[in-house]
Amino acid sequence: MLIKLPKASDCHESDVTPESLYFSRRSLLGGALVGIAASSLPRWASADDAARYADVEAGRAPNWFAEKLPGTRWQVVTVKDEAITPFKDATHYNNFYEFGTDKGDPAANAGSLKTEPWSVVIDGEVAKPGRYALEDFMKPYELEERTYRLRCVEAWSMVIPWIGFPISALLKQVEPTSKAKYIRFETLQDPKSMPGQRSSFGLIDWPYVEGLRLDEAMNPLAILAVGMYGRELPNQNGAPLRLVVPWKYGFKSVKSIVRISLVSEQPKTTWQSIAAEEYGFYANVNPTVDHPRWTQARERRLPSGLFSPNVRETQMFNGYSDEVASLYSNLDLRKNY
Ligand SMILES: Nc1nc2c(c(=O)[nH]1)N[C@H]1C(S)=C(S)[C@@H](COP(=O)(O)O)O[C@H]1N2
Ligand SMILES: [Mo]
User: Fold this and answer.
1) Which residues touch 190 (CB under 8 Å, ≥6 apart)?
2) Separation between Cα atoms, residue 216 and residue 325, nearest integer Å
3) Which residues form the Oxidoreductase molybdopterin-binding domain (predicted)?
């Protein structure tokens, strides 16, 4: 993300960067094809759901995921008239600082992340706290496909078909007490498998932490994802369990979650701790409130290259105003950025 990084970052949309050269001609062509495929697809699951997107790399799904996948409700939320980002771009242009700060680092390094076995702790202000093996944690939930825009605070964006379940379903299971006002998420801390946690990038006080107000978490658009593009999450995208809140800047969507806590106070989040004047708790996508060092009025939709930068106007709440604007009717969004 754009802070005073030790090395140059690539995120100003006006910059010509080495990363923009990354996008191959193949992925640019793929973008057009995938867009057509997505809108003409049936809603039922089939053996080759992954094949509904061009060039999806097969994964090695854990048993619990393979067993649940056929029951997935496909295309519960879609994005009209915008192409789904090619799988190659969504999996090779990532922010996951635990694996390095360059966009290609997570794809190169996240193979060391061991996602099986995985456990999730539920604690804080809940009637039913506990520590669950992921396969047990997942048992109550039916999977849904949700295709959302993802808008990074660095002014690039993608369209990604996630597979997951609403946080509201989790809250129903764990039963927050009347003191619970916020939900806090924590990423795995494991310097052995996460080189970024043992490197010189000392700005971050690991583990990565994010949070939502409880009413935000209850919004039907807020999900926990376990898959994308018809398969389980690749490690670099936050396997095996991550948050996705599409109306907020991407940094809210914390990856590789090991702990979910219901709390009474607003949690201190990672990017707030690093640069509170640049990255707020709310982080709602808002084209009228610029980042102190660049405009948020526009974004580069990936794949974006030298000759087709693919710039578009950023939408209020990333295009989800109808669903979420009412959450903020009493809030000054200029102060609560
Ligand atoms: N644990 C953790 N979660 C994280 C990040 C990170 O560095 N560490 N980066 C965030 C940022 S800035 C973005 S834009 C999204 C990127 O998600 P993607 O790589 O799946 O597109 O993940 C978010 N979640
Ligand atoms: Mo981001």
Assistant:
1) 197
2) 11
3) 114-271
Superfamily of domain covering 13-328? Oxidoreductase, molybdopterin-binding domain (3.90.420.10)
Among 38-42, 154-158, 242-246, name the one with the lowest average pLDDT: 38-42
pLDDT of 13 above 80: no
Q: Whose CA is nearest to atom 1 of ligand 1?
A: 255
Q: Which long-range contacts (CB under 8 A, 24 or more apart) does 36-40 make?
A: 37/84, 38/78, 38/83, 38/84, 38/147, 38/161, 39/78, 39/80
Q: Which two tokens stand for residue 268?
A: 């201190």
CA distance 327 to 325: 5
Cα–Cα dist 56/228, whole Å: 10
Assess whether the C-beta atom of 96 lies below 6 angstroms from ligand 1: yes
Query: What is the pLDDT confidence band of residue 154, given thresholds at 50, 70 and 90?
Result: very high
The answer to whether 183 touches 261, Cβ cutoff 8 Å, is yes
Q: Mutation test of ligand 1: which of 255, 259, 272, 301 has the most ligand atoms closer than 8 Å to its C-beta?
A: 255
Looking at residue 298, what is its pLDDT? 98
Residue 95 alpha carbon, nearest atom of ligand 1: 9
Spatial separation of the C-alpha atoms in residues 113 and 99, rounded to whole Å: 9
Binding residues for Mo-molybdopterin: 94, 97-98, 152, 187, 237, 242, 253-255
d(C-alpha 18, C-alpha 232), whole Å: 30
